[in-house]
Amino acid sequence: MEQINRSVKPSPTNEIDFSLPEIQSFSLDNKLKVFFVQKNDLPILQLNMIVNAGSKFDPDDKKGLANLTSMLIDEGAGNYNALELSDEFDTLGSNFNVGASQDNIFLSLQTLKEYFERSLDLFSTVITKPHLNQTDFDREKRKVLIKILQLKDEPDQIADSAYEYLIFGKDNPYSSSTLGEEKSVNNISNEDIKLFYDLYFKLDNFALIVVGDSSINELKENLNLLLAKWQPKKTIDISINKTVRSKTQIFLIHKEGAVQSEIRIGHLSSERNEDDYYSKILLNNILGGQFSSRINLNLRENKGYTYGASSRFNYYKNGAHFIVSTSVGSENTGNAVKEIVNELHSIRKGAEQKELDFAKSSTIRRFPSNFETNKQIASNLTAKYIFSLPDDYFNNYIEKIRSISLEEVNQAAEKNIFPEESIILIVGDKNKVFSQLENLNLGEVKQINYP
Question: Which of 166, 192, 227 represents a domain boundary (last residue)?
Fold first, then answer.
């Protein structure tokens, strides 16, 4: 038997070839937009309903309203109370979930094909006939307030929320946590929930993603039958003030007795639909988007400061930012910040061809794994809808990545990485880290409270 030489790394045998099944789009008789991918390998359907009603629509004094509305939506609907509704879904073997983000509220349903009509009937009942009663409201509101108190003891959550507040500024709705703050949540009444529902849960404000075992004609027939009474109503939208970068600032949130420091460094960036999106994917993979990236190898492998450090471009519908995240021992806080800032300066001087080749290979080879399940496909179609991506986006993705040159990546670094216009945020013990941060000579260290 031939022995395998394990000292030699095996080479890929062929190029990755990926093609997503056709994305079919249509409107129901009542004008609801539907995007459908037929996938018949299992008798399962996945539905994602997208509501243009995220936390960016929260009033200034009632942050957390969209999230609390999403929590209340399935607490009883139609002829069912909360427990009965949950039991109905469980009996059918269907999974139903609701959640809120800064841009949207999402309602998702996974069901067996044989129970699709019954599950869809329950699904539409939740959306169109929620009870929104006072008892359920009081219970869900208490859950939110308890969660807010719990997060005050979690430095990583404090760092993530405070970073976005500092990046976007208090006048931008993306600066606020979806969960809200204790004071703002206490301002919310059940009447506010009902008003929010009336304003935003309107047919013109929805889109439906369906992936699974159905023909388009069968799907249309079922959807038209069960959603026919849901009629269009005019929706409202909001305008978002654009914020700009400023000179590097260092902020410190004191966490008494903390043995580690949460570090967040970054700045505002160009939005999702810019021409250099693909270049930024590869740029970020080289810089901090994968295990072998510069930042992770530096802080984890070379210096031993952390178990992991990463970077990413984070996109919202009306905004975006770049962020580097890590957690280090308090004694290494200043040195870790210094190394991250050095890496940001270094990438602006250019990447190497071998780094780009590896980033391309890893990006391309893991891309098909994002479409293995109905849920994954539906999630990707949801992003396609939110960012108005073309129908052939997924089928062209690999070729777009392959076509990016080293020059384009280096141009992307110059256009999108700004170490001298960054927010540097530390959540840690000021007694251990304040002097370290001062000695970096990157600017005044400002101690702040958050929230």
Answer: 227
42 and 167 together in one domain: yes
Rounded CA-CA distance 201/282 in Å is: 38
Q: Would you state the pLDDT for residue 240?
A: 76
CA angle 216, 34, 236 (to 5 degrees): 165
Residue 358 carries which side chain, given as an amino acid letter? F
Q: What is the dihedral of CA 408, 413, 415, 418, to 10 degrees?
A: 180
CA dist 24 → 33, 49, 208, 209 (Å): 11, 16, 12, 10
CA 35 to mean position of chain CA atoms: 21
Query: Does 451 sit behind a cis peptide bond, omega within 30 degrees of 0 on the bond before it?
Result: yes
Rounded to whole angstroms, the Cα distance separating 356 from 405 reads 8
Kindly report the CATH number assigned to the domain that includes residue 37: 3.30.830.10
Same-domain status, 156 and 86 = yes
Domains in the chain, number: 2
Closest CA to 207 of 396, 383, 71: 383
Question: 219, 60 in Cβ contact below 8 A?
Answer: no
Low-confidence ranges of the chain (pLDDT < 50): none
Last residue of a domain, one of 227, 259, 278: 227
Q: What are phi and psi of 252, to 5 degrees?
A: -125, 125
Domain that holds residue 313: 249-447
Same domain for 275 and 174, yes or no, is no
Strands 33-38 and 206-212: parallel
Q: Is the peptide bond before 390 cis (omega within 30 degrees of 0)?
A: no
Written as one letter, the residue type at 319 is G
Measured CA to CA, the distance from residue 404 to residue 424 in angstroms comes to 31
Residue 246: the pLDDT is: 84
Reduced DSSP (H G I as helix, E B as strand, rest coil) percent helix, strand, coil of the chain, to 5: 45, 20, 35
Joined tokens for residue 19: 């093609």
Taking only the tens place, the pLDDT of each residue in 217-231 is 999 998 988 777 676
